[in-house]
Amino acid sequence: MTSILLAIDWGTIAEKLGLIVVIVSASLVIAMYETYAERKVAAFIQDRQGPNRAGPMGLLQPLADGLKLFMKEEIIPNSSNKFLFVLGPCMAMLTAMMTSAVVPWGNKVELFGRTIDLQIADINIGILYIFGVVSMGVYGIMIGGWASNNKFSLLAAIRGASQIISYELAMGLSLIALLMLTGSLSMKTIVEQQMMPGHWWNVVYQPLGFLIFFICAFAECNRTPFDLSEAENELNFGYHQEYSSMKLGFYLFAEYINMFISSAIMATLFFGGYDMPFVDESTLSINIAAIVGMVALLVKIVIFIFVFMWVRWTVPRFRYDQLMSLGWKGLIPLALFNMLLTGAIILWLDK
Amino acid sequence: MCGKEWRNALTYIFAKLKRKQEIEMESLTKRNKVMERKPMTFLESIYLWNIMKGMLITLRHFFKKKATISYPEQKRPFSPVWRGLQILNRDEEGRERCTACGLCAVACPSEAITMEAAERKADEEHLYREEKYAAKYEINMLRCIFCGLCEEACPKDAVYLSETFVPSNFERGSFIYTKEDLLIPDPKKEPEEYAKALGNRASQKDKL
Question: How far apart are CA A269 and CA B48, in angstroms?
Fold first, then answer.
C-alpha cells in the first residue's frame, strides 16, 4: 500500500489541481466580465453609455448582477421533472468548463524548481475530446427544455439540439482539413507547429476552414445570429424560460464560458495559440516567455470575444429554415470541398 | 380604317399620355426610389459581404459620440419656451404677489387649481403685497397639463411655470402641491435659491 502511495507523483497532482482551480476561477471571472463587456459593447454600438453606476465605469456591475441572481427566489415548477430540472444547468456548466482542460494556456513555467506545463491535460486526442465534450453541451439545453414541461422550452430544446448537431458536422469537416496539415490532434503540438520558424499561423493555410469553423462556433455557442434556442421574441426565453435564480445564472454563465473557450480554441487552432507574433520566444527566459505567451493568447481571445459580441449586435437572427439550409446546403458542402482541396494540394506538393 | 382599329389607336394614345403624365408628375418629397427586385447576385447570396458591410456600420457607431448623457450629473438645458412646474412668485421685498383673484383657476382647462382667499391683517403687510391674499392655494399636478394658461391669465405676475418638472412619486396625495410647495424662496433672505427657482423663463417673459 505504501509503495503505491509513494509511486504516485503527488507534486504533479498538486500542480494539476492548482492549475484546474486557477483556470476554472479565471474562466468564471472572465465570463463575469464578458457579461459586462457585452452590455457595454451593445450600448456603444447603439450610441448609449452602458452600465456605469456600480463602481467606476460600472466595473462592479457583474458583482451586482451575480448578487441579484443569488438573491432571487429559486423556483422549481410543480409540473417539472425535478431531478432533470436541476441536472440541466449542471450539465451546461460542466461541459462548458470541461473543454478548458486540453487548451494550452501557455508554454511552461518554472516554479519552486519544477517545470509546470500550463495545460491541464496534453492528451493526443485533444480536438476529439473537445468535440466529445461540446456535443455533450447540447444535453444541457435538451434536458433543461424537456424538464421544464413547457411548450416553448421544449420547442427551444428541439431547435437547439438540431442546430448543434447540424453545425457540428460542418465544424468537424472543417477541422479535418486542418488536421491533414498538422497531422496531430494534440492542441499543444498544433501550437508548437505554428510557432516553428518559417511557419505561419494555420489561418493562412486554411482561411476557408477557419471561416467555416468560426461560423459553426457561433452556432455551437448559441450566439446570435444562431440563438434560435433562446429566441426572445419567438419563444419568450427558450429553454431557460422556467428557470430562476442561480440556475438561470448557470445557463447564462455557461454561454459566456462557452464563448470564452471557443475563442480560446479558435485562437489555438488557427491563430497560433500562445505564439506572440514577431517575438522569438526561445531567446527569452522560460518564465517570461510563458507570460508573454499567455498575454498573447489572452489578447487573441479578447479580440475573438469582441467579434462575437460585435456580430451579435449587428446581425439579426436566422429563420429556422435559413439556419438549416445554411448548415446543410452551405457549410457542409463547403467544408467537404475545402477538405478535398486541401487533400489534393497536400498530395500535389508531396509529389 | 375600321372602327376597331381606331379604337385600338385611341387606347394606345391614351395609355401613352397617361404614362407620360405619371412619369412627369413630381413627388412631394423627391425621395421615393424605384425598387428593383432582381435575383440576388452571387456576392449577395453568400451573405458574408453584406454582413461585413453591416458590421462596419456598427463599428462606426461604436466610436461615435453617445446620444445619451449621465442624467443626474449632467443635465441638458431647458428650452426657453419650456413649461415646467408652477411657482408662486414674490415681489422684490419678498411679499407674495398672489391676490387670490381666481383667474388662474378659471383659465385652467383641466381644473387643477383651487384656492381660498383671506384678508390681510394690519401686521401682515410685509408678507402680502395687497389686501387680499391666498390662504390656500393648491395645484393638482396629476390634472395639470402644463399649458401655461394660468400664467397668461394672472394679472399680478404671481404664477409662473418654471424650468423644473414634477418629480415622480409613489403616492397620489403627494401630487397635490400646496402653497408651501409652490411658493418661491424669499428673494431677500435667500437670493440664490430665489434666482434658481425663478429660472430664465420668468425673467425673459417680457421679451417673449
Answer: 22
| Chain A residues 24-83 within an 8 A CB cutoff of chain B | 41, 44-49, 52
CB contact under 8 A, A47 and B58: no
| DSSP line for A156-173 | HHHHHHHHHHHHHHHHHH
Which residues are within 8 A (CB) of A35 and not within 5 positions of it... i.e. 6 or more apart? Answer: A62, A65, A252, A256
Q: Which residue of A has its CA nearest to B73?
A: A53
DSSP bridge pairs for B160: B87
pLDDT of B143-164, one tens digit each?
999 888 888 888 888 888 888 8
Give residue for cell 418638472: B165
Measure the CA angle with vertex A99, ends A97 and A102; round to 5°. Answer: 125
Distance CA B13, CA B17 (A): 6
Contact call for B51 and A314, based on CB within 8 A: yes
Please answer yes or no on whether A314 and B54 come within 8 Å at the CB atom.
yes
pLDDT tens digits, A61-79: 888 988 988 888 888 888 8
Of A49, A311, A315, the CB nearest to B66: A49
Q: Is the peptide bond before A316 cis (omega within 30 degrees of 0)?
A: no
Quick one: DSSP state of residue B29? S
Main-chain dihedrals φ then ψ at residue A274, nearest 5 degrees: -85, 25
Residue A273 to chain B, least CA–CA distance (Å): 25
pTM exceeds 0.80, yes or no:
no
Cβ-based contacts of B63 with chain A (< 8 Å): 44
Strand partners, B155: none
